[in-house]
Amino acid sequence: MARMPIVAGNWKMHKTIAEARDLVNALKPQVADATGVEVVVCPPYTALAAVREAVAGSQIALGAQDVFWKEKGAYTSQVAPGMLTDAGCRYVIIGHSESRGRFGVPEPEMTEALLRWFGETDESVNRKTKAALAAGLIPIVCVGETLDERRAGQADAVIAGQVERGLAGLSAAQVAGMVIAYEPVWAIGTGETCDTPEANRICGVIRSVVARVFGAEAAEAVRIQYGGSVKPGNARELFSQPEIDGGLVGGAALEADSFAQIVKAAL
């Protein structure tokens, strides 16, 4: 089965509405001919409406950076799945390491209280994933190990557990249609990149867990991205690996030229 590669830009807490619009308008002509790869941009909530208008008529899909699992209620600051579909979103990132409170290099001001406040769990990832699917969104579920876990030889077990718990209760068909992003925590925003053979191996581990839990057909269909300091200089090598179906891109997605180069590397 040929899997369509997918390259998604996670803008994190960057770009005003005007900046977001400018970025998309600069990006559109550069990826207009990239028909063999799915392109997604995930701006902050405040820019969703502007980016929706900017990507209209293009091949660029809109995604959000998080979602809550309730459709409505007294949940101050949270955004419901239906609100995202109403805003034009097709994709949503769930369980990013920065949401889980798993940071590669914590900033000095990241106190223990702040880490606990933002700490996503596998259970909340599971709830959000189910809610996103029920609303017609395609989840991009992130998994990945910390540097301490890798040094202790626990990377495979940690990631397998995140996949099993995060996707628990889903059907094989639901898993087949979603995206999983392998993001080693120690490579997020650090400039470090998992070496290509190891990134491919871990993505293969993820696929083997999906095969064991949901069956071979779902494992063959599910798209698995690599994320973690993906840049124009390393994207082609990463995307050429048989288990890697594109990338979840952070800093390099904030400039049209660099993100376009990464998109084209997936062709």
Your description of this structure?
The chain is α/β, with parallel strands linked by helices. It has one domain: TIM Barrel, CATH 3.20.20.70. The chain has 13 helices and eight strands. The longest helix is centred in the C-terminal third of the chain and has 19 residues. The protein starts with 5 loop residues before the first strand and ends with a helix. The mean pLDDT is 93.
Topology:
Layout (H helix, E strand, L loop, with lengths): L5 E5 L6 H15 L6 E5 L5 H8 L4 E5 L16 H6 L4 E4 L2 H4 L11 H6 L4 H13 L3 E6 L3 H5 L3 H12 L5 H5 L2 E4 L13 H19 L1 H6 L1 E5 L4 H8 L6 E4 L6 H10 L2
Parallel strand pairs: 1-2, 1-8, 2-3, 3-4, 4-5, 5-6, 6-7, 7-8
Helix pairs in contact: 1-2, 1-13, 8-10, 12-13
- The CATH class is Alpha Beta
Number of domains: 1
Major β-sheet, in short? 8 strands, parallel, barrel
In spatial order, strands of the major sheet run: 1-2-3-4-5-6-7-8
Shape: globular
- Please tell me the CATH architecture by its name: Alpha-Beta Barrel
From the helix content, strand content and strand pairing, which structural class follows? Answer: alpha/beta
Taken in chain order, the helices and strands follow as EHEHEHEHHHEHHHEHHEHEH
The stretches of 5 or more residues where confidence is low (pLDDT under 50) are: none
Strand content: 5-15%
Strand segment tally: 8
Distance between the termini: 16 Å
CATH superfamily heading: Aldolase class I
Examine the coordinates and then state which fold CATH places here, giving the name of the CATH topology.
TIM Barrel
Radius of gyration, in Å, reads 17 Å
Average pLDDT level: 93
Report helical residue fraction: 40-55%
Number of helices: 13
